Amino acid sequence: MTRVFSGVKPTGHLTLGNYLGAMRQWAAVDQHRAEALFCVVDLHALTVDHDPARVRRLSRQAATLLLAAGLDPRLCTVFVQSHVDEHARLSYLLECVATDGEMRRMIQYKEKAAREQRRGGSVRLSLLTYPVLMAADILAYGADEVPVGDDQAQHVELTRDLAVRFNQRYGHAFVVPRATHPTVAARVMNLQEPLAKMGKSDDTGPGIVYLLDEPDVVRKKVMRAVTDSGREVVYDRESRPGVANLLEILAACTGGNPEALAGAYESYGALKADTAEAVVEVLRPVQERHKELCADPGHVEGVLRDGAERARGMARPTVDAAYRAIGLLPAS
Ligand code: TYM
């Protein structure tokens, strides 16, 4: 059976981008067709300046939202990365096959390091090695597929390179995974800056729809979205990025196609109004379920406890085998 692994990082409140680009497919498709693991990757949240209490809170919230989005622990494994030591154990081995140059070429590293420096902070070494830990997340489980938004494509490519290199040098230890992306909304853009990704760790609140935004807040954000000069509603990501983003969001929420939808609108106002309502309707069941789950925190804790146990059982044999393959002396 195909094995699937993916994760979300608790560095901010989860967004519509996370939902349309990843979580929705995990719930609607992946957990039904594959042996799937979904992880709150909390170790990754320590790679930039962080507040411990906030990371803990956001980790719990992300896990709750994964369940609220429809992940069913009877069908898939939901867990927290730091509960399973194998991620950090394997990451070190992969650091011994990865190179410094490879890490410095990662687009997200360059962007995030520049942002930290602009804020006057220093760049944590873990930010540089972030993609190696991500590779360990994936390779520890022998995942065949990694369903992610477009922004993670380069990291999954690196994971493939590391798996191939390790296998060639030390004997077959890892499955070489591939990234899969949704057909629409693989890159939801910021409503205020349609050339930038809608990212949860960004500060431009008005351009980001959070999964837990109240309906009126969602409406306000969508109605105030930056559109392009011109009046005609056309789908063109290059010359009309703002309108294209709205069309993609609407298409992703209603199951339509952005080009076809463009022909159905005569004004930006009507497009925005329909997009706002479509987003509100998509988020409604997630928010309702989230509220129910918050009333029963013991349930979420139980799911995470069982999930970590299952995940450990899957990762340990692979990571132990990699330790032996690379030349480390077994403990007994
Ligand atoms: P993260 O937490 O930034 O995002 C979680 C998932 O949401 C997708 N996504 C988007 N998709 C479309 N439009 C957007 N604006 C948007 N923003 C986010 C991401 O592509 C991702 O699929 N490095 C990863 C977390 C990670 C991981 C892993 C993922 C760590 N280890 C192993 C897969 C496998 C990240 O920062 O995702």
Automatic annotation (TrEMBL):
<feature type="binding site">
    <location>
        <begin position="197"/>
        <end position="201"/>
    </location>
    <ligand>
        <name>ATP</name>
    </ligand>
</feature>
<comment type="similarity">
    <text>Belongs to the class-I aminoacyl-tRNA synthetase family.</text>
</comment>
<feature type="binding site">
    <location>
        <position position="188"/>
    </location>
    <ligand>
        <name>ATP</name>
    </ligand>
</feature>
<feature type="short sequence motif" description="'KMSKS' region">
    <location>
        <begin position="197"/>
        <end position="201"/>
    </location>
</feature>
<feature type="binding site">
    <location>
        <begin position="17"/>
        <end position="18"/>
    </location>
    <ligand>
        <name>ATP</name>
    </ligand>
</feature>
<comment type="subunit">
    <text>Homodimer.</text>
</comment>
<dbReference type="InterPro" id="IPR002305">
    <property type="entry name" value="aa-tRNA-synth_Ic"/>
</dbReference>
<comment type="function">
    <text>Catalyzes the attachment of tryptophan to tRNA(Trp).</text>
</comment>
<dbReference type="GO" id="GO:0004830">
    <property type="term" value="F:tryptophan-tRNA ligase activity"/>
</dbReference>
<dbReference type="GO" id="GO:0005829">
    <property type="term" value="C:cytosol"/>
</dbReference>
<dbReference type="InterPro" id="IPR002306">
    <property type="entry name" value="Trp-tRNA-ligase"/>
</dbReference>
<dbReference type="InterPro" id="IPR001412">
    <property type="entry name" value="aa-tRNA-synth_I_CS"/>
</dbReference>
<keyword id="KW-0963">Cytoplasm</keyword>
<protein>
    <recommendedName>
        <fullName>Tryptophan--tRNA ligase</fullName>
        <ecNumber>6.1.1.2</ecNumber>
    </recommendedName>
</protein>
<keyword id="KW-0547">Nucleotide-binding</keyword>
<feature type="binding site">
    <location>
        <begin position="149"/>
        <end position="151"/>
    </location>
    <ligand>
        <name>ATP</name>
    </ligand>
</feature>
<dbReference type="InterPro" id="IPR024109">
    <property type="entry name" value="Trp-tRNA-ligase_bac-type"/>
</dbReference>
<dbReference type="InterPro" id="IPR014729">
    <property type="entry name" value="Rossmann-like_a/b/a_fold"/>
</dbReference>
<dbReference type="GO" id="GO:0005524">
    <property type="term" value="F:ATP binding"/>
</dbReference>
<keyword id="KW-0067">ATP-binding</keyword>
<dbReference type="InterPro" id="IPR050203">
    <property type="entry name" value="Trp-tRNA_synthetase"/>
</dbReference>
<feature type="short sequence motif" description="'HIGH' region">
    <location>
        <begin position="10"/>
        <end position="18"/>
    </location>
</feature>
<feature type="binding site">
    <location>
        <begin position="9"/>
        <end position="11"/>
    </location>
    <ligand>
        <name>ATP</name>
    </ligand>
</feature>
<feature type="binding site">
    <location>
        <position position="137"/>
    </location>
    <ligand>
        <name>L-tryptophan</name>
    </ligand>
</feature>
<dbReference type="GO" id="GO:0006436">
    <property type="term" value="P:tryptophanyl-tRNA aminoacylation"/>
</dbReference>
<keyword id="KW-0648">Protein biosynthesis</keyword>
<dbReference type="Pfam" id="PF00579">
    <property type="entry name" value="tRNA-synt_1b"/>
</dbReference>
<keyword id="KW-0436">Ligase</keyword>
<keyword id="KW-0030">Aminoacyl-tRNA synthetase</keyword>
